[in-house]
Please model this.
Amino acid sequence: MNEERIPSITELGDPSKPKGAAGAEMLTRMNESHKDVTAWGLSHIMLKGSENVLDIGCGGGAALGRVADSITTGHLTGVDYSPVSVELSRMNNSALIEQGKMDIVEGSVEALPFADESFDFIYTVESFYFWKNTAASLKEVCRVLRRGGNFFIIADIYGDAELSEKSIRDVAKYDMLNPTRAEFSELLSSAGFSEVHIHTNDGTSWICVQGVK
Model:
């Protein structure tokens, strides 16, 4: 009996900006494949429940749904520059949107469509390595974060980690940004963050970079 061949994420298109039906399929797979690193990274974010939270590069919306469990009187916003991501995130979080607890908008990290100091917490999961204009984008993040607020970069690779051969190939194939821990600290400090803390997970190549404004 012939087994159905399951395409990999990379065969479904460009993961930096999913498009069309194949892009929606990719995002659904990413929601599943990234759930462990997402859970680990988000465990570093301590919320009281009243915060305004922004997810940059919200993809399929799984992280937003997870963070929503910790928000009571606060509000969540997702932003992504892929229309397919926005549509799927809205579908996956439709109940929260209807309740007025969440908004999901189309926009780029290079020009975030929000006022200065709009958010208490900002995070990005498995998205940072696709940011092209890194310095300007980080300054935009700093701009919309309130004084004393926290920004978290969550990823399953970093430059001085021991990476698999596949991860090394993907970094080259998709021209992914892959800073070392020291380079992360320098990037966030240069963007205006007053403190930078680096969290890694033993036995993995996972990283959670925390910037305090």
Q: What stands out?
A: The first helix runs from residue 20 to 33.
